[in-house]
Amino acid sequence: QPVEDCGIIVFGASGDLVHRKLIPALYGLALRRLLPPRFYILGFARSEMTDEVFRERMREAITDAHGEQPADTLNAFLAMCRYTSGSYDDPAAYEKLAGRCSVCDLDFDSSGNRLFYLALPPELHPEVVERLAQAGMTSEGQDHKPWARVVFEKPFGHDLQSALRLDARLGKVLAPHQIFRMDHYLGKETVQSVLMFRFANAIFEPLWNRSYIDHIQISALESIGVEHRGGYYDKAGCLRDMFQNHMLQMLAITAMEPPISFQAERVREERTKLLRSIRPWPEDDPANWIVRGQYMAGPPNILPNTQTGTRTAHSALPDYRRERGVAQDSETETYVAARLLIDNWRWQGVPFYLRSGKGLQRKVSEIAVTFKRVPYSMFGMTSKAQMPANVLVLKIQPDEGIDLTIQTKQPGPKSCMSSMSLSFKYQEVFGVTPPNAYERLLLDCMQGDRTLFWSSEGVEAAWRLIDPVLDMWRRRPERCPLHRYPAGSWGPEAADALLVNAGHRWRRPP
Ligand code: BG6
Predict the structure, then answer these.
(1) Which atom of ligand 1 is found nearest the CA of 245?
(2) So which residues are the catalytic ones?
(3) Alpha-helical runs (H) found in 1-50
(4) What per-residue string of b and e applies to 254-268 under the rule 16 or more CB within 10 Å gives b?
(5) Helix (H), strand (E) at residue 102
(6) Contact 28/435 with Cβ under 8 angstroms?
(7) How many A from CA of 20 to the centre of ligand 1?
(8) Tens of pLDDT along 409-459?
(9) Is residue 365 lining ligand 1, measured as CB closer than 6 Å?
């Protein structure tokens, strides 16, 4: 599908997300010649700044992310960037913005198509969209020509009620096809490739159910702490920041039924259906289902460099409660592990274990599927219980790829067995690292393809699951205590207890 000419209007343009993710991704698209021929970027934020100063900041963001760039490529990109300032609650600022957009539409000959990107705290979303609408900027032409689309960064609301309220307000000024709820995990090449893996190969899907799968572990582990986002994170916590969105989307993609086509609505429906079939966590005995933790100061983190084989010491993280922007007596969780069950025919009785956290030993995101053991061992030296299970690991990041462990015979006259791995490494096969998730998702917004975005029904289903946990933590914190774990570890030991009864263990990423 061609990318139509358009302008992207970035709210929160002086913020961190724009610096670290958005502008580098747009520049990445420019490098790969994927931006439309007639295109502009108009930054909007409270700080006053000239176009020149904005361009200098964008230059910095690009070189921070991509390293030094050829001057002509970089300057051509920066020539498409402009800026205007204003207060998010001031109608006059939107009139001024509308004027600047019209000038840019003409100057860049971009057909009047506009993508509004809200890189703003979620509490500002409804007001900004309503003011955009009042200033006439969200109206579309006949047959959506020109179009107007709005991209929302997660989190979508703070809990179920606020998400429903947000949705109702958005629904008054935007049509569903104009709304893009962004979850950058869905833009990761390796997350999308789970769909290809499952539905473009005939050999795995017949095994993808309760008859052959013993359990599934989904992990998104990070070694960094909250860095400079303490103020936001301390109010959100890991359950809202990672679980309600990225973790549940990875689960949905892993466990959903095959959609009837690869069309946005069909794929989104199946993801939502899956989220709706997750069994709510029981209110009694919550600690047996969900564990929360918070990192304390730890020793320097020794990280292996997989490229060079060396190990580097990274400076130790401070105690979470000493991070900037974090309350000294904070009870906010930086780690969550959960066991959950899916109530449908395919998955009845199969435990899914999910965990995510910061301040952990290493950054690893993966989906590990452990199959059932052989029903009987004919090899005298190995009983059925000793025979290792086949494990399929979909490696989301880093070392993107797929590993499948199988048992083989060791060379020699004796019947000795050993486990080995069939391994596909993205970098080795394709010779490149996977493109940045934001690039893919921005392109999809410009093409109007909502397949990899949250639907409002999906958001609601996710909050219906998460909300009771937040509520229980608030009302009865003693029933699900906060476990402190040293930074640089694999999280609180209490998380192991979630698996022990079923005879399972958390995987230690290699
Ligand atoms: C973001 C969270 O959505 O995802 C961050 O807000 C987290 O807290 C980040 O660090 C992780 O993304 P990735 O792509 O680095 O795994």
Answers:
(1) 3
(2) 246
(3) 16-17, 23-31
(4) bbbeebeeeebeebb
(5) helix 91-108
(6) yes
(7) 12
(8) 888 877 778 889 999 999 999 988 888 899 999 999 999 999 999 999 999
(9) yes
Looking at 20-164, which runs of residues are DSSP E strands?
39-45, 81-85, 114-118, 148-153
Tell me how far CA of residue 235 lies from CA of 158, 230, 387, 411, 435, in angstroms: 9, 9, 46, 57, 31
d(CA 362, CA 358): 9
Cα torsion angle, 182, 185, 190, 192, sign: negative
Ligand 1 atom with least separation from CA of 437: 14
Could you tell me which residue, 27 or 142, shows the higher pLDDT? Answer: 27
- What span, in angstroms and rounded, lies between the C-alpha atoms of 34 and 37? 9
The answer to pTM > 0.80 is yes
Q: Which residue has the tokens 């084989």?
A: 309
Q: Which two tokens mark 331?
A: 């009870």
Query: Which of 453, 452, 456, 454 lies closest to 160, judged by CA?
Result: 456
Q: ipTM exceeding 0.90?
A: yes
For 64-107, the pLDDT digits (tens) are: 999 999 999 999 999 999 999 999 999 999 999 999 999 999 99
Peptide bond into 304 cis (omega under 30): no
Identify whether the C-beta of residue 115 lies closer than 8 Å to the C-beta of residue 7. yes
d(CA 197, CA 204): 8
Quick check: CB of 222 below 6 Å from ligand 1? yes
296: which strand partners? Answer: 486
Q: Counting beta carbons within 10 angstroms of the beta carbon of residue 500, is it exposed (0 to 12), middle (13 to 18) or buried (19 or more)?
A: exposed
On average, the pLDDT of the chain sits at 92
CA dihedral 433, 435, 438, 440 (to 10 degrees): -150
Out of 242, 323, 334, 365, give the residue to mutate to test ligand 1, the one with the largest number of ligand atoms within 8 Å of its CB.
242
HEC string of 182-237?
Answer: ECHHHHCHHHHHHHHHHHCCCCCHHHCCCCCEEEEEEEEECCCCCHHHHHHHHHHH
Q: In testing the pocket of ligand 1, which one of 153, 241, 244, 397 has its CB within 8 Å of the most ligand atoms?
A: 241
Position of tokens 């060079």?
A: 308
